Amino acid sequence: MPIGEIEIHPYLQQGQINGATKLILGSFPVYECTDQDNTTKQQNRLNEGTIRFFYGSIDSGLWGLYRDNIDDTILLPPDPNQILQSLAHRQIAISDTIYSCERHDFSSLDNKLIRRTYNIQCVQSLIRNGVRKIICTSKGVLKDLERQFILHGNLPFGQVDNLAGCTFQENFVQGLGGNNNQITSPIAKVFTIDNYQVTAIAIPSPGSPQRKLAQFGFNGNDWRNYADNYFSNAFNWLNE
User: Fold this and answer.
1) How far does Cα 192 stand from its chain's mean position?
2) Which burial class, exposed, middle or buried, applies to 184 when counting CB atoms under 10 A from its CB (0-12, 13-18, 19+)?
3) Domain map of the chain by residue range?
């Protein structure tokens, strides 16, 4: 990619589900899915089967988790129209924290996305209009949600309820048979905004759940079982 190329998120408005009470929140699409579109991106999508939509990479795994835990009628590879109908039916919005950025080495890792402009207006609007539960698709997204969307600025959008967040995290990890003492940075946060609370939980990377799974409380031998239970409990909580 050209040095200094600024990529723009092309479909944030599609995820602004009217009446949403829940939110799936990521960071930024893979290179093939961003604007400005070009022949390289088009060829890569053709070669890899990538869809221009949230988590459109065939390696992401998110829509497989959504199908397995929320809506078993979802087809794979994902059909954006079918997914949007399913999300709307369940009052689940989907968005990303970043509106535009520069990318290093074609990577989608959070630490490779620089010169960020955050998608503050869309996310805060969803929360103001009813979102009370958020699944963050990485710990980096959870950190950005807290620092850039809730606490950022001279007049913060909300505050952190540390006690409620710790209690939620402890109960969640204990329910999985995990070990809270292994978690060095939180997997869950509770925010107080005006007179209501918003609870957010981070999930392991849907594309490689074994990566850093100990940081999500895993202390056993069967990482696949722990990851599957983690995803199942998180998505079931979201869909309640």
Assistant:
1) 20
2) exposed
3) 9-27+57-97+119-239
Q: Which residues have CB under 8 Å from 239's CB, separation 6+?
A: 22, 69, 70, 90, 92
Read off the pTM. 0.94
- Which pair of structure tokens corresponds to residue 147? 């620092």
Strand, helix or coil for residue 35: strand
- What lies within 8 Å, CB to CB, of 194 at 6+ separation is 158
Residue type, 155: L
Q: Digits of tens for pLDDT over the chain (240 positions)?
A: 556 789 999 999 999 999 999 999 999 998 899 999 999 889 989 998 899 999 988 778 999 999 999 999 999 888 999 999 999 999 999 999 999 999 887 777 778 899 999 999 999 999 999 999 999 999 999 999 999 999 998 999 999 999 999 999 999 999 999 999 999 999 999 999 999 999 999 999 887 777 789 999 998 889 999 999 999 999 999 999
Q: Are 113 and 97 in contact (CB under 8 A)?
A: no
* Architecture of the domain delimited by 9-27+57-97+119-239: 3-Layer(aba) Sandwich (3.40)
What sign has the CA pseudo-torsion 48, 54, 60, 66? negative
d(C-alpha 228, C-alpha 140), whole Å? 21
Residue whose pair of structure tokens reads 């799974």 in the numeric block? 213
